[in-house]
Amino acid sequence: MAGSELVDQDKLILRGLKFHGFHGVKPEEKKLGQKFVIDVDAWLDLRAAGVSDDIADTVSYTDIYRIVKDVVEGPSQNLLESVAHLIANTTFLKFSQISAVRVKVGKPHVAVHGTIDYLGVEIFRFKIYTAGTSSLQTNSYSKMGVIFIPIRVASLLTSRAVVEVVDRYDNACLPSNATNKDAKIAYIQNRDTNKNCTRTITITKDMNQPIYVYYQLDNFYQNHRRYVKSRNDQQLRDKSKVNETDYCDPEKTTADGKPIVPCGLIAWSLFNDTYSFARGSENINSRACVQVTTQNKPRSMCLSQQEDWIVWMRTAALPTFRKLWGKIEKDLKANDVITINLENNYNTYEFNGKKKLVLSTASWIGGKNDFLGLAYLSVGGLCFFLALLFTLLYLIKPSTTVLLTLLFLAVNFDPAIFDAV
């Protein structure tokens, strides 16, 4: 609100307020004090008071009088500018309905050798209303909430419509005498030991094809810096550089010095458990063609025996992760019993890891994952809360933001701050 816009607006006028104060730069001014003359104009809407004839609908001039008196007779200030600013700020702090204040502070007696008819300062301060800002904030947060909450509902319902069957088999596919960690490690590292294992799972709900098969590893930190760096992309990209093994420590060469292809810890630790599936006498096993997003191909393509390796080389960000192993292209019905013949080859016992087999349908947001829906719910709920908060703040005290700012300035008062106001 500019000063020119207030010319014809309602205001309270107080003229010729006189108080004795101890303001000034000179020592004698602070010691002896002198009389100050103050004029105050306070702009506010007086229409309601004019209709109701009720003091509650306006600001009592006696309250403004007391503010001026307390400031002038209060702690000493060096400058008249400071006195005027304190009067204006205190008026704003106490009366949120006042939109602008003009304060004129005059000092009849001037500590100079010469003739001066009048010395004083006049300041004009207007409040930048937060009404429009509050409305904008409220509308923005409300709209965000309206957007996020339906997305949350759709995401959560879609996620929970995904059918998922999980079977942990690392502890089940061990000999009976492998009761401690050392025995488990000895079993898994013995190449002559039969690692075949048979598991049965029961389908809990109808699962429509395609049904994706994942293996899940727990407590496996593929995101470890040394692990992630242990690879050579040039070796994988260019046949002429197949012998390059830089950055592949500790798996870069064989015992006789020949380069390992592909080299590095990631390739060396490739997951090598295998699975086959049957429903009664019907074989339902089918390996999937993996979507190769890292290559410039317009569609999915099969990379024969290397598709498992391509998936494995995409390191996971979290210690618990799933990687696509294949897919079943037949519908499974509720209560179907699926027999899984697997080879328990991969050593997770060394690091107390877990292995799980996951059968899952998919939706437009992927597999079963409530996190996305809960995240949208949290953001949407926060937006609605903030919209309600700003609405309440505006209804209770329309200019709360401005008043808090003025309070800070009053407590940490520095007249130079107001030079740009």
TrEMBL record:
Its EC number is 4.1.2.25. This is 7,8-dihydroneopterin aldolase. NCBIfam families: folB, folB_dom. The lineage of its organism: Eukaryota, Viridiplantae, Streptophyta, Embryophyta, Tracheophyta. It catalyses: 7,8-dihydroneopterin = 6-hydroxymethyl-7,8-dihydropterin + glycolaldehyde. The keyword Transmembrane helix applies. Its main location: membrane. It is an enzyme of class 4 (lyase). The chain crosses the membrane at residues 371-395, 402-418. It is a multi-pass membrane protein. Residues 12-125 form the Dihydroneopterin aldolase/epimerase domain. It comes from Rhynchospora pubera. Catalyzes the conversion of 7,8-dihydroneopterin into 6-hydroxymethyl-7,8-dihydropterin, a biosynthetic precursor of the vitamin tetrahydrofolate. Can use L-threo-dihydroneopterin and D-erythro-dihydroneopterin as substrates for the formation of 6-hydroxymethyldihydropterin, but it can also catalyze the epimerization of carbon 2' of dihydroneopterin and dihydromonapterin. Catalyzes the conversion of 7,8-dihydroneopterin to 6-hydroxymethyl-7,8-dihydropterin. Pathway: Cofactor biosynthesis; tetrahydrofolate biosynthesis; 2-amino-4-hydroxy-6-hydroxymethyl-7,8-dihydropteridine diphosphate from 7,8-dihydroneopterin triphosphate: step 3/4. It is found in: Membrane.
